[in-house]
Amino acid sequence: MKSLEDLARLREEVRERIKVREGAKAVRITVGMGTCGIAAGARDVMAALLDELAKRGLTDVTVTQTGCAGLCEYEPLVEVARPGQPKVTYSYVTPEKIRQIVAQHVVNGQIIGEWVLAAR
Amino acid sequence: MLYRAHVLVCNGTNCSLKASPEIQKEFSRLLPEYGLDKEVKVVETGCFGLCEYGPTVVVFPDGTFYSGVKVSDVREIVSEHLYKGRVVKRLLYQVPPAAKPVQVYPEVDYFRHQVRVVLRNCGFIDPESIEEYIARGGYQALGKALTAMTPAQVVEEIKASGLRGRGGAGFPTGLKWQFAARADGSGPKYVVCNADEGEPGTFKDRLILEGDPHAVLEGMALAGYAVGAHQGYVYIRGEYVLSIERLERAIAQAREMGLLGKNILGSGFDFDVEIRLGAGAYVCGEETALFESLEGGRGEPRIKPPYPTDAGLFGRPTVINNVETLANVPVIIERGASWFRTLGTQKTPGTKVFTLTGDIVNAGLIEVPMGITLREIIYNIGGGIPNGRQFKLAQTGGTSGGVIPPELLDVPMDYDSLAAHGSALGSGALLIIDDSHCIVDVAKSFSFFFLHESCGKCTPCREGTLQLHRIMERISRGEATRTDLENMKALAQAMYVAPLCPLGQTAPLPLMSTFRWFESEYLAHVVGKTCPAGVCPVDGTAARAAAGCAAREV
């Protein structure tokens, strides 16, 4: 490293790596990972979600999991909590759908009404 | 790839002894089995502080705090928590004695009452990764100083912050730097980091170096810039294996990145650091004995003056600071002296790192604002005294410190307040002793320690520590007379002033301060020929077992 600018650049770069540990982010996405969710394909949804977030460089998003919500019929369930908007739970999520949810809802704040199971 | 979760495994010395490296390996082995290795990252960190309940594992983003984790528990954490998102409740840290599980890291009482400045990265970053240190703002202070501040401004900032030496003496750091900066500049100057932490019960410097080695290196580089030194040495105990390893790695990484070495960040300033190992003699924590040892000689103290800032290492002006002091420096430069002054008390701003040990529920490493009371530390953070016992005394700062009796539980913990009550803040050991212990027995162990560690160079210390210990032995055996007590006091007065270095000068301190607060217990041994706690062999027989043992009733 040759200058303070180099240091600042490196800092920005590596900051993303430990962001997971730094608490509240703007958006929180929760994937249902009960046995029911996993059986319905939640693992693939999770993989696609992480891939899409990485591709888009979205780091201000917390991805977490939860157990069975009691609505096994509707799994995989994904909840998106975005500031200033109601918490939205999507049902029957697939890897393709989650990529679209990231594009429309997470990035642009447009809730995809037809996939929504509940909003609160 | 973006990791959605980080699993932080504590690899401080205490947790390592309880198999944390194996736990980390088990995570690395099981994550691929569950197809999670691309989603979940395992991070080896330094000490979290709650050593009593280690090994500690924290899962982010939610901050789930697991304690007492065993290798056999790892599969459950992976399959339940990481795979299915179900927290493993039985492994959550349970606050004794209420036994209420606490899930989230910052909500644990032990951490809630702490203010983490020095330990800001300890247990949070991978200490072997310079990138993680930089991500947390590391080396920004050095960059700021080198590009936007003159050396004199750095000295002024540290002076204005009111930072005082955390090794125990509490000397104003800025003033020390100013003396060195103004000293003869016709030859080299040096910065020395004193990591020869020798006080029994103190292990804070070890854990700081293990958990955040770069903070200390950055502090040293800042000191070097401020006083015009280009070479730094870390004098560290040879048995601190992990600290040494991490420090070596940190130095190599910093050199590789150009944050140590020639022309740092294009500023034209050169600074490098080397490590020197000590062999564990207590006296080598004394600064001039440390220089002797570092130069390759016998670890014996020099006569002062001249002080180190005029003639220290290799006879050149030297700044010598404790590990914790140096770890404070980058934060002060980055956030400013006025921010630092918002913490702690007016005369002693900032925080203090303590190692909490002895008869206490939550033994471990803590950082609290200066001026907090011992009562708050013991009962809010420490979780109180175990086994239904009563608090008897706290030994501060290892053997060279003072004692805090129950009467002083509400005195603010800072250098001046404790000194005003005849005690001392010390280097950061807080040894809590309950009422099952005999004060004479405790004091006798201190007198033996000084006898053992006296280097023998000067007569008052060499002979004085021997006589003090002999008197303590006589008291303990019920053979002492009132004359012995008078002799002890007279000897103490001489030893406060006559020895060459603080080892001898402080040797009588723990005896005198225990005598001051527990005179009746001393007299019980001397006049009544009894040991109220039932520990000392006052009747000439072997010591009865510690309290609680059936032999006591015989």
Outline the structure in words.
The complex is a heterodimer of chains A (120) and B (554). With 120 residues, chain A is α+β, with helices and mostly antiparallel strands. Chain A has one domain: Glutaredoxin, CATH 3.40.30. Helices cover 40% and strands 19% of the residues of chain A. Chain A has helices spanning 4-18, 35-39, 42-56, 95-107, and strands at residues 27-32, 61-66, 78-81, 88-90, 116-119. A five-stranded mixed sheet of chain A has the order 2-1-3-4-5, with helices on one face. In chain A, α3 (42-56) crosses α4. The radius of gyration of chain A is 16 Å and the shape is elongated. The mean pLDDT of chain A is 90. Chain B has 554 residues and is α/β, with parallel strands linked by helices. Chain B folds into four domains: 5-107, Glutaredoxin, CATH 3.40.30; 130-340, NADH-ubiquinone oxidoreductase 51kDa subunit (Rossmann fold, 3-Layer(aba) Sandwich); 351-434, Ubiquitin-like (UB roll) (Roll); 439-553, NADH-ubiquinone oxidoreductase 51kDa subunit, iron-sulphur binding domain (de novo design (two linked rop proteins), Up-down Bundle), CATH 1.20.1440.230. Chain B is built from 22 helices and 15 strands. Chain B has a five-stranded mixed sheet. In chain B, β8 (231-237), α11 (241-256) and β9 form a beta-alpha-beta unit. The chains are: A alpha+beta (120), B alpha/beta (554). Chains A and B meet through α1, α3 and β2 of A and β1, α5 and α6 of B.
